Amino acid sequence: MATIPLQPVESMTVTTLVDNSIDMFMPDQGPAKRLVPMSENGRRPAGLLEGGEVWEHPRAEHGFSALVSVTTTKGENRMLFDAGRTPDGLAHNMRYLGVCADEIETVVLSHGHFDHTTGLDGFARLLGRANLPVVIHPDFWHRRRLNLPGYEPWELPSTSRSGLEGVGFEIIEDRQPSFLLDGSVLVTGEIDRTNDYEPGFPLQEVLHNGSWSDDPLVLDDQALVVHVRDKGLVVMTGCGHAGVVNTVSYAQRLTGVEQVHAIIGGFHLNGPLFEPLIPLVCAAFEKFAPNVIVPTHCTGWRAIHALAAAFPSAFVPNSVGSRFEL
């Protein structure tokens, strides 16, 4: 595979806008700067409290979104990576955290599942007119459902192309790797599946020509890759349906950069189908030897505990509002 010349950046900051958990008393740790407890970021009515008000608060939800900022010799650029699960969760947290929507230059969606896309609704309303590119894989639009043993199949909400375009987003589809921000950010496109243990998402089905069929690969799953000068690659996943090990390995092969500085995002190691993979993922991370590991969203508590135990100096817990200076 020919390598892609990813331009190193001087620094990178990742701010968690949406995640499954929040801890307002979590202390700063290594590259992570936390929210200030009890900060005065607005108030809301609370009729049963003396004074009738309470401090506003960011929200946690089963979804993921991050503000990614990269600094090059030309200046700073910002992008939104995923958008969370609810129509207003992302917008609420952006307001609380003081993130200006009109400073974001592009949106990258890791895949089409609604817990990574629905927050574009409120984000578009913050913008007024969303004249921004949205980078996706062509399979992003597929109608999908989960076929869980013992339950009726559950069709997942899917994103409307006309809805996105109607509020002004410019859709950019590509299966291949692509660059953003003058070659400083790489979107992987479709990720090669090269190991024999990361299964994708076996319970998923897709609607084709009026009938449902197995769709375990989630081919629209893609990641962000940034090369921080003198530190190595930062690899960001949404859910990591392609497999977090496959994803990091693919980033190394694409860029020709072996050194891994940070792995951040959902690793999808929760539940009985995926928890048996935890030792294999930990063994692969030993070889990657990242300086920073930040598991989020769908990683699962057993995997988070295993990663914390195996990599005590690299592991950093996440919380909504955390800012990672990489």
What does this protein structure show overall?
This protein is an alpha+beta fold. The chain has one domain: Ribonuclease Z/Hydroxyacylglutathione hydrolase-like (Metallo-beta-lactamase, Chain A, 4-Layer Sandwich), CATH 3.60.15.10. The protein is built from six helices and 20 strands. The strands form four sheets. An eight-stranded mixed sheet has the order 2-20-1-5-6-7-8-11. α1 packs across α2. It starts with 10 loop residues before the first strand and ends with a strand.
Q: What would a concise description of this structure say?
A:
It is built from six helices and 20 strands. The protein is an alpha+beta fold. The chain has a single domain, classed as Metallo-beta-lactamase, Chain A (4-Layer Sandwich).
Q: How is the biggest beta sheet arranged?
A: 8 strands, mixed
Q: Which structural category do the helix and sheet elements fall into?
A: alpha+beta
Largest sheet, order of strands side by side? Answer: 2-20-1-5-6-7-8-11
> What is Rg?
19 Å
Mean pLDDT: 95
Level of helix content?
A: 10-25%
CATH topology: Metallo-beta-lactamase, Chain A
How many angstroms separate the termini? 28 Å
Strand content: 25-35%
Number of helices: 6
For CATH, the homologous superfamily is named as Ribonuclease Z/Hydroxyacylglutathione hydrolase-like
Which architecture per CATH?
4-Layer Sandwich
N to C succession of SSEs: EEEEEEHEHEEEHEEEEEEEHEHEHE
- The tally of domains stands at 1
Overall shape: globular
